[in-house]
Amino acid sequence: MLPLVQLVAFEGPDRYSFVGGLATRMNDLAGALVGRGYTVRHLFVGDPRAPHEETRLRGQLLIERWGQWISAYHPKDVYDGEIGKWKDFSRTVPPHLVEDVIVPAAERGQRTVVLFEDWQTADAAIGTALLLTMREHRSSASLFWNANNTYGFGAIDFATLEQAASVTTVSRFMRAALADAGVDAAVLPNGIAPRWLRPVEPADVHAIRAAFGERPTLVKVARFDPDKRWDWAIDAVASMKAAGQRPRLIVRGSRADYADVVWARVRSRGLSVAPLRLAAEAPMVAVAQAIAATDADIVHLASFVSERMLRALYAAADGVLANSTKEPFGLVGLEVMACRGIAYVGRTGEDYAVPYGNAVVVQTDDPRELATHLAYLRERPLLAARMRDEGRATAQRFAWPRIIEALELTWEAAAKLGR
Q1: Nearest by Cα to 41 from 128, 89, 113
Q2: pTM for the full predicted model
Q3: Residue range 151-177: average pLDDT?
């Protein structure tokens, strides 16, 4: 019998809970596990207005919204009131997992694999291990705690956590960060959902590329956050414009206070901005016409961006800027590659990136570097085409159905060791 898989994280599928890469990881991993035949439970801090429990994927996925009574007082998003939610989560999740999930599964002869994600769940992992030991059910579950980034490391008792759960992470960069904290972690990379590997509609790419014309066009989709190198991107566009080029940067950010800092820098560099507000499922021809109609340096996608639109933009652009100051893994880079786009990634975390093999790796903090890469690839269209092909091949190797095999081997090893 396959084990029951329990995912535990702050982020999840609700819009309230979907902030960044963690939600993408949780949602796509859950879907891939169900596709492989597992029954999956996903506990997360969910929308306070939604039902406490909900089944999806033909009943094979149970999503469980936790701490809704607190979230009702913090309606912005999952991290609104984070400390109070974390304290309640750490106290109430362990007894629920033990009494309502792990022990009942054991009584019907099924083992449970519990995957805890990021710093907010570390105390819950420790509490769950303690309660299982007290109930003499420690062998009924394999507990894993995974680090997707370094946020909150200062709040984690790593020595106790290592005794409670097997510690994993998503890249060699993150393994080094954990080693600095005295933890020896296994590297299990992230994956992307198989849907990203579906070919982008050629008509969509053609329409968007035609709208770009001869202007060098870049795309950046990221949270408005200092780590996402917005200042570098803006300064790079300003530098290219000052050199007599006509660059265009298409951006999509997030609701965050740092957005004010980003737009202030845009104004200080004398760049023009055109907000673009389109219907959620606007035809790609309408998207292309709206882009072609503006001469602005920066096109701000100010309304919802569908995945279809995003994939077409990734595929059509000269490059997609996904170079963070500190990138634990680089999920966006892989999604860009899956669409046959050219990802501009940073120097940390993206273990999959090969400079000028399948991506551009930004090596310096000098914004003028961007123009150098763009010019180099524009002069070598065969190299750019080969990079797009190699990028897609790389993305195929990181699809969740393949990554799950490594997870399964890790689960089996943990079971044999009684972890």
Answers
A1: 113
A2: 0.93
A3: 96
